[in-house]
């Protein structure tokens, strides 16, 4: 849906001009009970219902009509359906009720503990499950960031490693898009080795090169155990403010990375709290 | 006054330069590879839709604006592409 009708100019225009669009993930708690109420009403009125489904309800919360996912994925059917609703209700057009904004929402982070934005995609544009990249936000605590800092006595060319619990948090999303029905990570990280080498040092600042290797088991389909491994080699750098014990910048990107015999790319980029606040 | 503002700006620039290491070949190489992986504008057209934060907010806004609600239910996380 996201890469099909929900990226189509006409559908976007119709939704913004005549509807109040909203998404709801089935795994999210239905605290208001509205998702369940709407589904039940559609079932009772024999208007169709499903887990992955389009429901349209009127301004008075009454069921109007819906589309099963197969029909909703057809851009022409989707446009005809939306136009039909607008004509039936004589809806007046206007600007979007809620201003469009990035849906991949950054998390709340502690001061001095940047969030990490991860992007992963297959490198062959013609492959399926690759219409857009996957994104994740990784949150390390201030204490976890502190474990990435250079040891006090390390000199240029000296090395150290990121401790395993932190390394696993960095590694567990390093795979391209797969089918996901839940929001939690289901990878089994078998190796997460991130070695840092000090390349520059001043009185208060330092830079390290990062060399990483990751191997994780992640079946393509949830609930269908399969020996699908993602293996990757990464390079990157980290800039440190030694005086204030802070990681200023952290970047890693794959060089060679393969999932189910297909090459993929993945990047991890730190984003400071100040930058995240400015984007809100 | 303009001179003073220029001095302050130059001072701030110097201070900020002292607080950060200059980009080198390693940084430039990594940043270039990172840029190639980032989502493109075409891949983020989904963000051009004015999505309501939740169903209740959508219903309240629909009543005020006299518009229908378009609800898409799904599995996973459509916002991050893990779905």
Shape, principal axes of CA atoms of chain A: elongated
SS class of chain A? alpha+beta
- Percent range for helical residues of chain B? 40-55%
Helix-strand topology string of chain B = HHHE
What's the assembly state of these chains?
heterodimer
Spatially, the strands of the biggest sheet of chain A line up as 5-4-11-10-9-8-7-6
Which two chains have the most extensive interface, and how many residues on each? Answer: A-B, 91 and 54 residues
Termini gap of chain A: 26 Å
> What characterizes the major β-sheet of chain A?
8 strands, antiparallel
Q: Number of DSSP strands of chain A?
A: 11
Fraction of residues in β-strands of chain B: 5-15%
Strand content of chain A: 35-45%
Question: Helix segment count of chain A?
Answer: 7
Count of extended strands of chain B: 1
Round the mean pLDDT of chain B to the nearest integer and report it: 83
